[in-house]
């Protein structure tokens, strides 16, 4: 017998590795992205009620109809595109499953998939599993003048060929915290017109956008939404990452293909969560309040870092903040992140982990990622520890 790995270069994800290290060393975990507080009690009550009201058997394969309906209403209200709940909205086991099912459904052997790095760790292995070929385009790294990453649209344009099947976009972006502006969507529209490329919009942080900006979903542009799969996650929106419920919206013919994979990956998603979420979503208060809730936490962390030798980059959205540690050490990022966790009691993620070749010099910019989805007292304790480094 010979077991041949389909993913020979993949190990355990950096988030699991760093959370384990933080636990082992009793460090404050600002690494893996999850809140250290509970979801709204009202949401937990609604989910519990759904269970007690006998929503405990298989729901429909594509998701509970009431939930798909609420998703459709919300997306129409926010982004102006009406997705048919029956044919264009699918509830998935987290955004993770939506991403994997979409990539497996769309990418054929030898197809090229354009990915912009740094990028979320799922994309490259998923493309590999599908037999596709990732074409990686680097973002422009931050500088003194522009203290955040930015997308090089000319490089994206140059990467697209007749063999490109899919372009994966993630915004607000993990890990860099950058977001799209109207000018970015203009560039994107111009690039994809007259091509056959599909777009995968990983928009799980759609409700965490700062400084008065609006999230500009791919669904806001008819020319883009016609070729897009738009993905979100209730884990991020309702502070319930452990529930693993997300969804994707895409034109009917595209959705039909995604559902063919979805039905054999998980078939459907647990029913009481879906029923509880559908009831809770009727009120838009929670998702509309999320940006200001997290902006206060971002500002708390940025203010705290002013008393340390870490230099924060700008973050426009998501619950992540990158910081430059070049005033402290010239260690590579992975070593520095481990050292912070084991010696200083604050767990973080090296940004190099979001690159195809994490060890390469071009993937190391002396940056680490903090997650600020934490109680204020957690942030304050971490900041006090950081000030000693
Ligand atoms: N995409 C990005 C960019 C993420 O940060 C995450 C988060 N954890 C996911 C997808 C997966 O989301 P979920 O937990 O809903 O599967
Ligand atoms: N998306 C989360 C992060 O970036 C982690 C999700 C996971 O652990 N797979 O930290």
Automatic annotation (TrEMBL):
Pfam families in the cross-refs: Aminotran_1_2
GO cellular component, one term: cytoplasm
GO molecular function, one term: kynurenine-oxoglutarate transaminase activity
Cofactor(s) listed in the protein's UniProt record: pyridoxal 5'-phosphate
Record has Membrane as a keyword: no
Keywords: Aminotransferase, Pyridoxal phosphate, Transferase
InterPro entries: Aminotransferase_I/II_large, Kynurenine-oxoglutarate_AT, PyrdxlP-dep_Trfase, PyrdxlP-dep_Trfase_major, PyrdxlP-dep_Trfase_small
Domain Aminotransferase class I/classII large: 27-386
Family (UniProt): Belongs to the class-I pyridoxal-phosphate-dependent aminotransferase family.
Record-linked NCBIfam families: PRK09082.1
Protein known as: Methionine aminotransferase
């Amino acid at each position: 017998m010979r077991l041949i790995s389909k993913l020979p270069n993949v190990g355990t994800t950096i988030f699991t590795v760093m959370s384990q290290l933080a636990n082992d060393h009793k460090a404050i975990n600002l690494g893996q992205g999850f809140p250290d507080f509970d979801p709204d009690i009202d949401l937990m009550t609604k989910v519990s009620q759904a269970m007690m009201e006998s929503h405990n058997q298989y729901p429909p394969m594509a998701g509970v109809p009431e939930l798909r309906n609420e998703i459709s209403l919300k997306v129409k209200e926010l982004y102006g595109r009406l997705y048919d709940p029956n044919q264009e909205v699918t509830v998935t086991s987290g955004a993770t499953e939506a991403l994997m099912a979409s990539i497996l459904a769309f990418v054929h052997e030898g197809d090229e998939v354009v990915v912009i790095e740094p990028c979320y760790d799922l994309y490259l292995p998923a493309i590999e599993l599908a037999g596709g070929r990732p074409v990686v385009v680097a973002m422009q790294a931050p500088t003194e003048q522009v203290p955040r990453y930015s997308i090089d649209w000319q490089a994206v344009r140059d990467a697209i060929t007749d063999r490109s099947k899919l372009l994966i976009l993630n915004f607000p972006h993990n890990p860099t915290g950058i977001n799209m502006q109207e000018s970015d969507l203009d560039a994107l529209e111009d690039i994809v017109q007259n091509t056959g490329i599909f777009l995968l919009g990983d928009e799980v942080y759609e409700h965490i956008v700062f400084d008065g900006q609006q999230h500009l979903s791919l669904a806001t542009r008819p020319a883009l939404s016609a070729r897009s799969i738009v993905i979100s996650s209730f884990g991020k929106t309702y502070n319930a990452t452990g529930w693993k419920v997300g969804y994707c919206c895409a034109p009917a013919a595209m959705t039909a293909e995604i559902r063919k994979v979805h039905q054999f990956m998980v078939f459907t998603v647990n029913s009481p969560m879906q029923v509880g979420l559908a009831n809770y979503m009727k009120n838009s208060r929670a998702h509309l309040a999320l940006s200001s809730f997290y902006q206060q936490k971002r500002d708390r962390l940025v203010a705290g870092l002013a008393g340390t030798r870490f230099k924060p980059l700008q973050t426009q959205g998501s619950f992540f903040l990158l910081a430059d540690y070049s005033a402290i050490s010239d260690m590579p990022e992975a070593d520095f992140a481990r050292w912070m966790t084991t010696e200083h009691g604050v767990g973080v993620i090296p940004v190099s982990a979001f690159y195809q070749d994490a060890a390469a010099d071009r993937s190391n910019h002396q940056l680490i990622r903090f997650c600020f989805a934490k109680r204020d007292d957690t942030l304050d304790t971490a900041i006090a520890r950081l000030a000693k480094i």
